[in-house]
Protein 1
Amino acid sequence: MYWVSVITEAGIFAILALGLDVIWGWGGDFDLAFYGYLALGSYLTFVLTIGKPTPPVQYILGFHLPVLLSILLAVVVVVGLAAVIGAIALRNLRDIYFAVTTLGAVSALYLLVENYTPLFDGYNGVYGLINPGQTALNLTYNGYRIVFLGVVLVLLVLAYLLVQRLSRSPFGRMLRAVREDERAAAAYGRPVFGAKYRAYLFGAALAGLTGGLFAIFISAFNPSAWTPQELLVIYAAILVGGRGNPRGVILGVFVVYIGFIELTRYLPSPASRPDFAPAARQILIGLMIILMLRFRPEGLFRERPGLDRGPVPPAPAAAPASQRAAALPGLTSEERARREGDASKAARRRAGKTERVGKTE
Amino acid sequence: MTTFLVSIGIGLSTAAILSLSAVAFTLEYAVSRIANFAHGEFLTIGAYAAYSGQTIFHQNVAAAAVIAAAAGAAAGLALNFGLIEQFRGRSAITVFIATLGVAIIVENVLIIIYGAANVTYGFGQGKLHHVGPFLWTTSDIEVIISALAVAGIIYLLLQRTRFGKAVRAISQDRALAQVSGIPARRIIMQTWALAGAVAGFAGFVLADTVGTFGPTLGFGFLLLTITATVAGGLGRPYATFGGALIVGLAIQIAGTYTSSAYQLVFAFLLLVLLMLFRPNGVFVRRSAVAVRA
């Protein structure tokens, strides 16, 4: 049963990582608000399903809806929040400015949830969603957990197929073209904001779904479950697996979650220092992020944007050709920056010790 | 009215600490063109260094402040040498993510050394003083005076010394500065040491005013720092003081009339508003056109 639980968790986070990869891997937007969408999805699934609160516990709504409907509603609300944050952050802001704005938004949400108890009971959080539908399905506790694992894996495969399909679609290629060069993409008539915005909403929807699954998985949710560190693990997993490559992302999540859970189980955890093992795990995550960025930014699996393999319509010939041209380079911005770096390094060597004209921005 | 004046007094004290942290952040940005997410960790390192040093130096505030600044400077040098220089030529967001990794590492190393629980200084806040309309503790007054002193020193350094001239040249165009014979690497190193020292000192005064602190001290303060920096305009050291004043006053006044638990919520909403309407700082006339850092 231990392994069932480990694989279920990794599967849930793999779906989450697929959503984040659409935003960050394809769109190139380093979103720090992302874990907030999982949290909101999770909270809403609880309050829509577990019924009225008994004082002193307090939270909003408190309905007794079927769990599937709750998750669906939660996804809708999460996408609504993402629509607001995305509209603010994606319109003009990029890179660090985008990252900082999303971090500000999620921090405001976090503090609000933590301090305003009528919302989701503040620091105590919500709980009590234990195996919804277990009696209806006539399952034992363990049987339910195994069925749930199956559901998660099926959803993961569906999410993978969807993302893979999207990756090869004109939308996926447009998103990558926008990431590589916004001006060029705009010059070819691609809606820069529209592309990024749709990607953002799609990613947030997957995060909301993951929040619902997570609610069933851990049956309790409070602010300590969505600290900023949780998101970093997802980013580390994407970096390891291969940013922009759905298969790599799933592999990365399984490697990081299972590998790390297994490895860090053997860390010494002296009774005098109960913080040691979790802290050491965080240090390893941080090291992994830095080392991957420095030495292998493309990850284990390179990004492989799908080329336009379909028949080229005879007229107008210009449009598909330009799409291909935009997608063809098949390089991530990282790689390109590195190649430019190499070229400029050589140029610098030729030109003595003058430094490269700063286009690091 | 009294409540309002008291909140302004506290706001000024907050703004003083904020300005120290924000001016260091903006100096780092000015020379290296990167947003340092591990900046908060400089503050934490300074605070813990002073904590370790206070027993050796028998609760001497001045000695603790010097230790904090020295530890911060060492951290600044280490980060520039070990990470920023290694990532030269990479995109700004890549370096940003890497410094995020550093922040996580430092925070957890401190957890392993000092434990996750909060620790407390033995300095005390001193008596309450009525200064004009404001109500300040002795340490509040010390904080405000030291912030003004640091601001003056930084102004003189940047405007009146060869080092300052070099920093200003590099912040405008590193390559051009280099061609003109400015030893850019060395100047950048020195700037990081200076920024680290100011941040370490800021960490010490922050921890001292708050009373107790833990390994997340700096990380929690980072977003406030960034808000103040953006309010002033990223990479503009003098405007940063104005930005810190705005943010410090805004959150204290807002916090006084709602609840102190929400004052950070106001700060983050302020950040989002700034990003929306004035991403280049409130002191710049140019309207918010696409900002690509």
Note: Residues 2-277 of chain B form a domain with the ABC transporter involved in vitamin B12 uptake, BtuC fold (CATH 1.10.3470).
Protein 2
Amino acid sequence: MRAEARQMRGPVDDSGADNAAGAERFFALQFTTGPMQVRAALEELMACLAAWAMPGDLIEAAEIVMAEVFNNIEEHAYGAKNSGPIWVSFLALARKLVVTVSDQGQAPPEDLIRGKCLADIVPEALPEGGFGWALIRDLVHDLRIFRRDGVTHLSFTLTFVPERIRPPYSKGGKK
Amino acid sequence: MRLIHQLERNCLVVTLEASRIDAAVALAFKEAMRGLPGDGAVVLDLTRITFVDSSGLGAIVAVMKALAPRRLHLAGLTPTVERVFRLTRMDSVFPIHVSVEAGISDAS
């Protein structure tokens, strides 16, 4: 595979210039947390997906998910009083977008991946929070987390098919 | 955050001078929505809001509670905003209208 050969030869070109149909599309970005910086990063990331002519559904989902991931890093990993770097990468494959996000903040809670999902939300209770990770968990696939040497790496994919709302995890359903 | 509000029939139509209700402005939005004049229904014009994140959604819910017994109507949701409300099923607790005009007709 050409893509593998390219990876083995060295870093993938992230200039965004190689956007010919069928070409591997890779984009990376680093920024420092802060509300306006999150907005600017989202704008840049969404412009990248638009330039790659990704389906509108996927771009919408990506904006929702990336905003929640960044907000969580900002509010919980670094905390309200601190800021720090976030690294993001997008790799577009034939049927999906592979995303990685890394930060140097505090370790996320144990139940990050298998926590509440959208079906657990009780709208009638008029919740004012708890939407963020539920949205992420339901909109992405292949959610993984890896922490090493004080860095949290999050990886997930967004696919080109509409999401399905998952049923709630049964109690004690953690693996 | 600056708001523009005007009374139409019995409802107060509120338009935000913003394009996003996100973590950066959620608090400012809640503050700005305090002490709206009148006592009729409120129609929040979301026609120009392209994005609402979970903080923004939480803020809209908080505003709805703070306004009670006045009813908060939402009008003109753009696609991504509509999707956030639908995914979280919070569209079931707000009267949602395709346009401000439809919101006014229903609320007044």
Note: The mean pLDDT of chain B is 96.
